[in-house]
Amino acid sequence: MLSVKQLTIKKEEAFLSPFAVKSSESKGRLREEQPCPMRTDFQRDRDRIIYSRAFIRLKNKTQVFFSPEGDHYMTRLTHTLDVSQIARSISRALALNEDLTEAIALGHDLGHTPFGHAGERVLSKLSPNGFKHNEQSLRVVDVLENGGQGLNLTEEVRDGILNHKTGTSPKTLEGQVVSISDRIAYLNHDVDDAIRAGIIKADGLPYSVLKYLGKTSRERINVMINSAYENSLNKPVISLSPDVDGAMKELRAFMFDKVYMMPTAKKEEERAGYMISSMYGYFKENPSKLPENYLELLKKYPLETVICDYLSSMTDRYAISTFTQIFIPQSF
Fold first, then answer.
1. What percent of the chain is helix, strand and coil (3-state, nearest 5)?
2. 79 and 63 in contact (C-beta within 8 Å)?
3. What are the extents of the domains in the chain?
4. 127 φ/ψ sector (left φ>0, alpha ψ -120 to 50, else beta)
5. Is the Cβ–Cβ distance between 325 and 280 less than 8 Å?
6. Cα–Cα distances in angstroms (integers) from residue 317 to residues 66, 217, 256, 321, 324, in the given order
7. Chain-centre distance of CA 109, in angstroms?
């Protein structure tokens, strides 16, 4: 009698696309370990990510709007779940490995800073080695999780996490699906959040966006997913149609002009940047004030790297609390 794992592997061999990565074809982990008798390696990676501390912290990290008033704005966690859902839909339609896709999607933003990309830009300027959230996400799963042992994920999941950003190139189609799904997700829910906040109006989007993508978030997501399917089926690369890709790029430019870089957002970004840069300077001058587990990392890694590890791990609330404890006089 075949085990659950063996049945899954046989189903993959029978039904997945020739371009999909089968579980039995994985390049393996950084360190060899005893396989799970029930789960494939990609399913096991997904579970490890879901139960990691970094994943749990995503619920209190900013996506776009800092500490918004209202319960329905996106956080880094809801964005991650959105990416996972979209990526799984595309992978299922293309007969790719849905477990691998899901693991990459769930882990792609684990290294993101508090206060969204504002925090990332500040740390990138302060750190001698720069800072990129995709590289930090890989460091989280390779080093920082599990008491400094990392999660020991498969090479395919690690590659997808590292190369999900625009401008990078995932080696697997599942990784490419997550990269496109990331753009689909953040563009659409950032538009929804901006409309909810009264910053833009639904009918104020660029003409090409309304023409090629649709008037509502539901329409736009469906068009983008269908475009990925129609242009990628039975092909060794994931792509969108020129019209859809062009409209997405115009929507992104519109969001930078009208939302991401608007005066109110820039003002909040300056405040967040001041907090992060102040704490960076403080811990650089006082490394002994770092938490004990980060002091252990100093035995292997440069101080600037460890400070970035600590600051990027913070949730928005924890960052504000830590800044307050360090710099704001306490009553007595």
1. 65, 0, 35
2. yes
3. 40-323
4. beta
5. no
6. 10, 29, 25, 6, 11
7. 2
Longest C-alpha distance within the chain, in Å?
70
39: exposed, middle or buried (C-beta count within 10 Å: 0-12, 13-18, 19+)? Answer: middle
| Amino acid identity for residue 131 in this structure | F
Identify the CA nearest to 164 among candidates 94, 83, 277, 77.
83
Question: Please, are residues 162 and 137 in contact by the beta-carbon 8 Å criterion?
Answer: yes
The tens digit of pLDDT for each residue in 14-41 reads 999 999 999 999 999 999 999 999 999 9
d(CA 151, CA 58): 17
Judge whether 108 and 182 are in contact, CB under 8 Å: yes
Q: Sorting pLDDT into bands at 50, 70 and 90, what band is 64?
A: low
Cβ count within 10 A of residue 304:
17
- 62 DSSP β-pair partners: 75
Q: Which residues contact 35 (CB under 8 A, 6 or more apart)?
A: 41
> If you classify domain 40-323 with CATH, what class do you get?
mainly alpha
Alpha-helix residue ranges (DSSP H) falling in 150-262: 155-162, 173-196, 207-212, 217-232, 242-255
pTM over 0.85: yes
Q: Is 173 exposed, middle or buried (CB count within 10 Å of its CB: 0-12, 13-18, 19+)?
A: buried
